[in-house]
Structures are given as C-alpha cells and as structure tokens.
Amino acid sequence: MVGIPVAARALIAGAVVGAVACALPALAPSATTPWSSLALLAALYAVSEWPARCPFLTRALGPGSVPVGAGSFLPVLLAAALLLPPAAAALVAVPGALVSHVEQRPAPPRRIWRAAQLGLAAWAAAHTAALLHGPAAVAASDFPDVLLPGGAAALVFCLVVTALDGGILAAAEPVPARTAWRGLLPRSLAPHLVHGLAGLMMAVLWRSPYGWPAALFVLLPMYISCWMYAQYHRERAAHQATVRALVQAVDIKDAYTRGHSERVGRASVLIARELGMDESRLDVIRFAGILHDVGKLGVPTRVLRKDGPLTREERRVIELHPEYGHEIVRGIGFLGEARAAILHHHERMDGSGYPYGLSGDRIPETARVVAVADAFDAMTSTRSYRRARPVPVAVAELERCAGRQFDPRMVRALVRALDRYGWQTAVTADEPARAGDAPRGRRDLPAGRRPAPGQVWGGAR
C-alpha cells in the first residue's frame, strides 16, 4: 500500500469490509450455498482471466494479444447473479480478480480492490434479480419475463462498478471530485447491458436440460469479440504512440512552435465535425493536423532557428518541408488521407501555394481543412515577435483571404465551430530562453517580402 493516498486506502479497506460482510452469509453453517455451482462459476471466471498472465501464451501470441481485464468476462458474474444467492454470487469474482492481469503497480492492492468491487457489484445484482424473481424465471426459461430481472441486474451491476470506479479515481488520482464520475455511466451502460444479455443466456442454458456445458458456448463468441477488441485497442495505442513520437521529434527540433501541432489537430477536428464528416474520418483529420509540419525534421536546424529574414535559397529549403513530411509518413498506412494533407497544406485556392501550385478543388479536402486550422492557430498564438491576435481579428483575416488562400467552406465551418465551442488560446513560444538559444526574429517572412493586405501565413512558414 506504499505510495497509495490515504483516501484511496480508506476506500479500498471499506470496499473489502463491505464485500466480506456481503459474502459471510454464504459461509454460515446454516446456509444452503450451492457450492458446486459456485465453484464451477468461480473457476470458469478465473480460467477466463488467467491467460493474460500466462507467460507461455503471451510469448506465443505476443503482448497484448490475449484479452485482459475483468470487463471481458462479466457474463460469468452476471450469470452467477441470476443463478446463485447474493452472498454466493459475491464470492464468484474473488479467485479470478486475484489472478487477473494488472498493468500498473502496485499490483496486489489493485487486485484486492477489483475483487471487492466485483464482489459488491455481483451481490447487489443478485439481490436485484432475487427481488424481481429472476432465479425462478431463469429456471422456467420464462421469456420475455426473464428479461426484466436480467436487465435490472446488469443495470445495478453497472451502477455499483461505475460508482466505485469514480470513487477510487477521485481518491487516488489528481482528479477533481466533481469530474471523477462525469461520463463514466454513459460509457459503461451499453457494454454492461450487452454483457448482461450474454449472462442471461448463460444462466438459461445452465438451467436447461443440457446443463452447464451448454452455457460455455456463450463464452466462446464473447472471448473472440474481446480478443478483437483488445487487438483494436492495441493497434490504436500503437498509432497514438507513433504520432506522439513524431510530434515530440518536431518539438525537439523546433521548440518555437511547441503545442502548435496539437492545437491545429484540435481545430481541424472542429472544422471536420462542423462539415458533417464521418466519425471514421475524424482521427485521420486529427492526425493530419498534428503531423502537418513533420517535414520540418528534414529542414536544417540553422534555417528553422535563424534570427531574422530568410534568404531566397533558405526560403526554398523551407518550402520543401511538405514533401519531406510526405516522405516521412508515406509508409505509415493508418494515416490514410492525412498524408495528402501533410503534402498539400500550403497550397492555395488561387494556385499560388506550394509545393505543386494546386488550386480549387484539386487541393485535397483534408489539406484545405488543415490550412485553415494552421493559419488560425498561428494568428491566435503568442510568438516571440508579436502578441496573439484576438479570435475575432483572426477570423476576420481568414474571411478576407477566403477564396484566394483558403476554402470559404472551411472558413465558414471554423467560424460556426468557434461560435458554438469557443477557443482556448495558448502561448507557444513565450517561454524563458534556455542556454544556447538564439533570439528569434520574424521567421515566417522571406527576405525582401512583406505581407500584402489580408495575407495570412501558416503556423510554420
């Protein structure tokens, strides 16, 4: 328990005491606990949880290839809530929770907490099912009447789990109490109801003439779906790590615009949502915004950090960064159309942009989105050579350049999104200078050139 806040220790202790009190009646000499069914369900749940800790399986299938987490096998616990008395149902989760896979340390208190949490949830779900005559309806296979106790048990299970999850989050993490529970129930309700339906099917098959072996067939599709879900999240985490590593590399190379990429990604998503783009494209749009300047990795540092105006040759080097970026990400398949945005985000509607001088609808849609988000953040961020412009001023500048530099449809979408959600401006380059850092001048203007009225530059050249 070393390193765990006092409030979290108290909550864990309270949950353990509560779970023990709920389970004690099953151990009383006068209790009629169905030990054979309890042991079988507990063993089934433990066997479902154990593979994620098996060194042989994780080596054979690869880390992250085995479904992990007690949530993967909740149908077993919800079936126990419909088959067993409440005190017995509280015991089913204990062996599995104590052998379950835990990624964060310390592991023992996390396993103890999980055992207590699931024990309390199963006890409450079993009580709810008993009040609605769920065990009798399950034994009689009384459809559709059995759906009410099954659904109510799953709902109560979800309520208890989310209430305890929010409590431990508020007690153990630096999360304000008012936000610890926010969004937990809506996110958890649908999965728990699906698990509840699977648990109801298990319970009905368990009480059928075919007995408990028939109930195992419910777990097979659940296990496969959980494996696919684990693979999806493993792949998504790898994508996020790849993007994060590239952004960190750019920030190290040019700390001058630190935070700019993330904000461009956020603004790009605002525009995409306002345009009604499919949810499946939003991640790609966000990646496009975040990685739009990844090509700066190929630009010499002395050019990026030069104090004062750039020469014509240096300007030509800078204008290669979209092509450098496209080469860097060309082999990253999950980026999809984000690669085109990285290559073309400096094109202009009138054809005066670079690298290929595309115009109008020949510029990919994602690139037109990122171009507006990039320019907007550049204008609303404080830089070493100027203060941030107010949002209304930046919007007016975008509107003046719509049709020549920017797609008017993207500008209108950003304006609507800002009216609806607002925008949190931030400082990107006003940090105290570090040793060895040279003072920076106006890095976005080439030598011998000044902006014409209404002209806007992107966030990085």
Automatic annotation (TrEMBL):
Domain HD: 257-379
TM helices/strands, residue ranges: 6-28, 72-99, 120-140, 152-172, 184-206, 212-230
Region annotated Disordered, chain positions: 431-461
Keyword annotations of the record: Membrane, Transmembrane, Transmembrane helix
Domain HD-GYP residues, every copy: 235-430
Residue spans of biased composition, Basic and acidic residues class: 431-447
UniProt-listed Gene3D superfamilies: Hypothetical protein af1432
InterPro entries xrefs: Cyclic_di-GMP/3'3'-cGAMP_PDE (IPR052020), HD/PDEase_dom (IPR003607), HD_domain (IPR006674), HD_GYP_dom (IPR037522), HDIG_dom (IPR006675)
SUPFAM superfamilies per the UniProt record, alphabetical: HD-domain/PDEase-like
Protein name in UniProt: HD-GYP domain-containing protein
UniProt organism field: Streptomyces ficellus
